[in-house]
Amino acid sequence: MNSLGNVLITGGAGFVGSQLVKEIISYSDHVYVIDDLSTGSLSSLPNSSKLTVIVKPINDEKTLNEIIPQVDYIYHLACSNLTQSINDLDHDLNTNLLDGYLLLKKIVTLNPTIKRFIYTSTASVYSQAEKLPTPEDYYNITLPYAASKFAFEHYCQVFNHIYDIPTTILRLSNLYGPGQLTSNPYCGVVATFFECAMEGKPLPIYGDGYQTRDFTFIDDGIAALLLTTTTPKAIGKVYNVGTGIETDILTLANSIQEIVKVDSKHVVFKQERSIDVVIRRRINAEKISNDLKWKSQTPLLEGLYRTFLWLQDKEKQE
Question: Residue 57: is the preceding peptide bond cis (ω within 30°)?
Fold first, then answer.
C-alpha cells in the first residue's frame, strides 16, 4: 500500500479504532486520533512519534478546525454503542448522527478535496431480518442505535452526491478478537465470555442461547477497511462485512469454555433485554467480495483461539 499521508480516526482508542491505528500507522505520514475515552483506552494505542491522540469529544469544533485541513483520509468510528443507546436516546442521536453531520460539514468547508471518508456502520440496521443471508438493500430499524447509524449512512450518501465527498460505508457484523477489552462494560459477547471463563464464572446468556450471530474476526474487518481506502470502486458504496456463517450463542459459549479448558462448563440464563431483538443474523458479503475481492479469512475457532492467546499475554503483562 502506498503512503496515505495524514489520517484521522475518530474513536481511535476503541476496539476497532485501536486495531486500525496499529495497522495503518506504517502506511501513514501521521495518524490523528480523536477520542473522549468514554469507552476507549490509551493503553490500546501504540507508542509512536507518528501518532497524535486528542482526548476530546468529536464535536469539539476547535479540534476539528485544526485537524481536518491537515488530513487526507478520515475513518469515522466514534459512536454511542448499542447498549448505551437504549438508555440515553439523546446521547445516541447527538453522537451517532449530529456529531457525524458536523464532521461532514467541516470537511466541505475545510477540506473538500479529501481523498476518502470511511464510515463504520453496523449490521444492527437489519434487526431481525426476514431475508437471510441479508444483503445491503434490506433494512429493519427497531432500536435507536440502528436508527441513528442508518440515518448517518444516508447523510454520507447525500454529501457524496451533492458535494462529491468520497464516502464509503461498511456495515460491520459482530467484530471480535485481540484488542477487545473486557474492562469496557460494553464489550461484546466474545470478550465477556472469555472473561467469565478465565475467572471460572458461569457465562451469562440472555434468552435461550439459540439466537445466532455472524462473528467476524477483527483482522478481517481491518482488511476490509484498508481495501475501501485504496479502491476507487468503493466510493459511494455500502458494504456488508461478515462471514455469512451463523453461530448460536450456546455453541460460542461451549467453544470458549473448551479453549479455556475450564473444569466445569456452565452458563447462566438471563431474561432477554430490550436490545435483544435479533434471533438470527447471517450477512451477505457478496457485494464486497465482487467489488473489492474481500472475503473473511479467519474461521471462528481460529479467531477465538487467537483471542485467547492475546488475553493470556495481556494477563501476564499486568
Answer: no
For each of the domains in the chain, give its residue range(s) and CATH number, in order of start.
6-175+214-245 (3.40.50.720), 180-213+247-282+299-317 (3.90.25.10)
Tally the residues of the chain: 318
Helix axes 218-230, 15-24, angle to 10 degrees: 60
| DSSP state at residue 97 | I
Q: Find cell 506504517 and name the residue.
A: 26
Crossing angle of helices 189-198 and 300-317, rounded to 10°: 60
pLDDT, tens digit, for every residue of 263-296? 777 999 999 988 888 999 999 999 999 999 999 9
Distance CA 31, CA 50 (A): 6
Q: Which of 237, 142, 256 is nearest to 192 (CA)?
A: 256
Closest by Cα among 140, 177, 134 to 285: 134
